[in-house]
Amino acid sequence: MTVADIVFCAIAAMTLVGAFLAVWLKNVFYNALGLILSLFGVAALFIFLDAEFLAVVEVIIYIGAISIAILFAIMLSRPWATQHTHREPAKLSRALISAALLFAGLLGLVRRTAWPQVSSGDLSIQAIGKSLLGTYALPFEAVSIVLLVAIIGALVISSAKESS
Amino acid sequence: MIASSLQSYFVISSALFALGIFGLLLRRNLIAMLIALELVLNSASLNFVAINKFCLPDKSLGQVFVIFIIALAAAEVCIGLSLILWLYRKKETINIEEAKELKG
After folding, report:
1. Which end of chain A, N or C, is less surrounded by CB atoms within 10 Å?
2. Interface predicted TM-score (ipTM)
């Protein structure tokens, strides 16, 4: 094992432990903190995959904006968000079996498929910018309209007057 | 060796996806379900970047797609959180079992 492999295994363990904490713990606040840990791991994996720009975007948008918005929502809906509810064994076993079957199926697919390997190509930020504003300019504009509509929708929903 | 093989990234993203689905099925708190959904979206992004690095001739395609995924996730969280807070103001709870007006 080289140094890169050891670091990779540590980052993978961090990602999966964070994801486990994000779904298992009963306190929603700890769930959000686990999500942040897991997202840091994903950003580090992006660096392993030579996508530095995406790693930075992941940290800024996912950790800096989305996680903080989730934490705000948890704070605003206290104390109900941290209410500890009883966990039924039937529901737990159903969720566990479905997730385990899904994981086993995905692993089988990954093992069985022959992935074609292409190693050459331009991974730079310049290439991303060129395709974002050249080839994929129309989807880019569509996404910006979706974001605008989401902002307006959130404003409308959160300022809606009580009808009763 | 491990860090440069496509399969190891696929195993990690499969585990993230399964954990996210597990959380979606297990939890009844809306914010916790939103957090589990973020894990599912992240596993998809990880898959896109891994395939982009190892399999695609056009190395910017996967990264552009992940940027779109991140933008759509931001929009989804923005709408989702405002709906959750609206539900909380209306019913004083964010448990999804309590939001049953449309149940037949």
Report:
1. C
2. 0.91
